[in-house]
Write a structure and sequence with these properties.
The longest helix has 19 residues. This protein has one domain: Nuclear Transport Factor 2, Chain: A (Roll). Strands 1-2-3-4 form a four-stranded antiparallel sheet, covered by helices on one side. The model has no long low-confidence stretch (mean pLDDT 79). The chain is α+β, with helices and mostly antiparallel strands. The chain contains two helices and four strands.
């Protein structure tokens, strides 16, 4: 069960039997939460990136933040690799994230794109 589901009253809680759907929902919550704003946990979510003035600096920090958050708040996954995908736009950040579902040793491949506002799972 996703971490955030624990705070939903039991009578309203969605009974999900799909582990992958639960993992994806948890990742969605984690990676779309701004650090110190969406949770009582101080290190939950992605930190503010306004202090950086280069795309390379932002990419490096976002990759570190994604790995830290997945390792800390989604214990069912193990991050194998994360890489930046080149883009022509100065405002577009795209990443490929390869994870393994620990119990099953199955691979979970994700693509995140900030401009297209998409998060795809293969």
């Amino acid at each position: 069960m996703a971490f955030m589901n624990k705070f939903i009253p039991s009578e309203k809680r969605k009974l999900s039997t799909d582990k992958y759907e639960d993992i994806i929902q948890n990742l969605n919550n984690i990676l779309n939460t701004k650090n110190s704003y969406g949770s009582i946990l101080e290190d939950y979510g992605i930190r503010d990136l306004n202090e950086f003035n280069s795309k390379e600096g932002i990419i490096k920090i976002v990759m570190e933040e994604v790995i830290r958050n997945i390792e800390t708040y989604e214990p069912r996954l193990s991050v194998q690799e994360i890489e930046s995908v080149d883009s022509q736009s100065l405002f577009q950040l795209s990443f490929k994230i390869k994870c393994t579902v620990k119990d099953e040793k199955k691979s979970l491949n994700m693509v995140f794109d900030s401009i297209m506002n998409s998060f795809l799972i293969n």
